[in-house]
Specification:
Elements: E1 3-8, H1 12-22, E2 28-34, H2 37-47, E3 51-55, H3 63-71, E4 80-85, H4 91-96, E5 101-104, H5 109-122, E6 140-145, E7 148-153, E8 159-163, E9 166-170, E10 175-178, H6 182-188, E11 194-198, E12 201-204, E13 208-213, E14 219-223, E15 228-231, H7 233-243
Parallel strand pairs: 1-2, 1-3, 3-4, 4-5
Antiparallel strand pairs: 6-7, 8-9, 8-12, 9-10, 11-12, 13-14, 14-15
């Protein structure tokens, strides 16, 4: 498979460096270059690239505007996006828009190859939502924590609890507090794995051991570590069905 690549960066030297690095990747073919957000959208619509190396800061609009413009087109298969930038403060937002990778300038050949390996593993291009279709469910949650940017695989999340304007993610060994709504996070998670069992709780069904029904009719989901999570009546039949698949 030939990977058709577009280089989008307003800095000529940055594009030249990418060209040199990509010369050592025999399955990559550069099908165009551009220096502004508007040019990037126009070029992508014309050449239908598989992958765009996209600078975030450009003279007219930014890289996120490009992603929005491309994903809004129902006639275009959304290319994978690798953001290239000298600024780390956009990393969380980049993965919220399903960027394939985030390369901090200056980056070396091996870091570029890691992004390309990730693309090759995906193989099929990312298809933009059309006619009301939803985007793929997220496989990791990206957030800042104590001066770090964490990339947490959703498979490690066992329980999600609401805390006012925040959600708390529970893994085996630790918890993380995010400024996020339960409804917003629920929409991004695969409902075959993550189930809202209560107004304040979402459980990872892979870690649910059983469901208990009390004499008074109250129910709770028992996690693998013995923790009990209340189950609202409206969710009871669904979790019972999923547990007995």
């Amino acid at each position: 498979m030939t990977i058709h690549v577009v280089l989008a960066d307003d800095e000529v030297l940055a594009r030249q460096k990418l060209r040199l690095l990509l010369k050592d990747e025999p399955d990559c073919e550069i099908v165009g270059e551009c220096a502004s957000a508007a040019e990037t959208v126009e070029l992508a619509a014309a050449v239908h690239p598989d992958l765009i190396f996209l600078d975030i800061r450009m003279p007219d609009l930014d890289g996120f505007d490009v992603v929005h413009a491309l994903s809004s087109r129902g006639d275009l298969a959304m290319p994978r996006i690798v953001f290239t930038t000298a600024y780390d403060q956009y990393a969380v937002r980049a993965f919220e828009v399903h960027a394939l990778d985030y390369l901090l300038k200056p980056f070396a050949q091996e870091r570029l190859r890691a992004a390309l390996r990730r693309f090759r593993e995906k193989l099929a291009p990312f298809t933009a939502p059309a006619n009301g279709a939803r985007e793929p469910f997220t496989t990791r949650v990206v957030f800042k924590s104590r001066g770090r940017i964490l990339f947490l695989p959703v498979s490690e999340i066992r329980l999600i609890g609401a805390e006012e304007n925040y959600v708390r993610l529970h893994t085996r060994d630790e918890t993380h507090l995010l400024r996020e709504t339960m409804a917003g996070l629920e929409q991004r998670l695969d409902p075959q794995i993550f189930l809202r069992v209560h107004r304040s709780f979402i459980v990872n069904l892979q870690y649910v051991r059983e469901m208990l029904i009390e004499n008074e009719g109250d129910a709770s989901a028992v996690l693998a570590d013995g923790r009990r999570v209340p189950v609202s009546r409206g969710y009871r039949s669904r979790i019972q069905a999923l547990l007995h698949r």
